[in-house]
Design goal:
Layout: H1 20-31, H2 39-53, E1 56-57, E2 91-96, E3 101-108, H3 116-123, H4 126-129, E4 141-143, E5 151-157
Antiparallel strand pairs: 1-2, 2-3, 3-5, 4-5
């Protein structure tokens, strides 16, 4: 069965596609691991079943047994969402069962992060949550790693779309 993306010229127009030589090169790059998962991504991929049980679905790239979506097409991998690695190794976007996007952050128990969870919990406390001066991102959930006891995961609303906005005030 052919990849359904191959015939979707509305979403993947001709300028996103390559000739046979390009496709062969992209396939070779894929076999050579150019688009493979790095060690930080493997951390998240290995957590996929655990996070799914908690109600958080990671992108297809981080599903065990992932097959790149451009395989079987003439579409340049750079235009495929699952060809891109994560920007912040300790932070992963996920979808909740209600389809909202959240950020899951791994906070290892290290010197530079030792007080981070306490600060987040303080800012999310009942006393401060309703304070109009509190502009901290809400803390939606916290939970432990299934095998690493020295650290914690936090979940907050996804603010990734704010990355392109200039920060003018602190």
């Amino acid at each position: 069965m052919a990849n359904s993306r191959q015939h979707d010229y509305r979403r993947y127009p001709k300028w996103m596609r390559g000739i046979q030589a390009d496709v062969a090169a992209w396939e070779q790059d894929t076999r050579d691991g150019v688009y493979g998962l790095d060690s930080e991504e493997i951390f998240w991929r290995d957590l996929h079943p655990f996070l799914l049980e908690r109600g958080y679905r990671l992108r297809p790239r981080y599903t065990p047994g992932w097959t790149p979506s451009w395989i079987g097409t003439d579409i340049n991998p750079t235009y495929m969402e699952d060809s891109h690695a994560i920007l912040l190794p300790g932070v992963m976007d996920a979808r909740r069962e209600d389809r909202s996007t959240v950020a899951i952050k791994w906070i290892p128990d290290e010197f530079h992060t030792r007080n981070e969870i306490d600060i987040l919990r303080y800012l999310a406390s009942d006393a401060l949550r309703d304070d109009p001066r509190n502009h901290a991102c809400p803390l939606l959930d916290t939970f432990s790693h299934p095998t690493i006891s020295a650290g914690i995961f936090t979940v907050s609303p996804w603010l990734g779309t704010l990355i392109n906005y200039p920060i003018r005030y602190v």
